[in-house]
Amino acid sequence: MSAAEVHISSAVVHARPERTAEIARAVAALDGADLHFADAGKIIVTLEAATSAAIADQLSAIGQLPGVLAATLVYHEVTTPEALGEQPCS
User: I want to staple 10 with a disulfide (CB 3.0 to 4.6 A). Which of 37, 64, 75, 79 is the partner?
Assistant: First the structure.
């Protein structure tokens, strides 16, 4: 059995400017999402999940929000809970 993994990604979301605040709230409400910037149709978010498939699901959910024009993965890292100073899940 392999050690637990933590997948951390960042994404840029392009949205209709008039819906930026609404979309930012929806993105921030997603499990594992951390909003960093939202203004004038541009949103920057980091996503954290246990698998790359879960990251893909999060990105897909963001891309399907009304008013989202594009949700683009910018960075993806695979690490371990120990490397992040966390306790591994049992």
Answer: 75
Phi, psi (5° rounding) for residue 53? Answer: -65, -40
Alpha-carbon distance values, 10 to 2, 7, 23, 32, 60 (Å): 25, 10, 16, 11, 13
The structure's pTM equals 0.87
Which region, left, alpha or beta, applies to residue 24 given φ > 0 means left and ψ of -120 to 50 means alpha? alpha
1: pLDDT confidence band, cut at 50, 70 and 90? very low
Structure confidence by residue, pLDDT tens digits, 14-42: 999 999 999 999 999 999 999 999 999 99
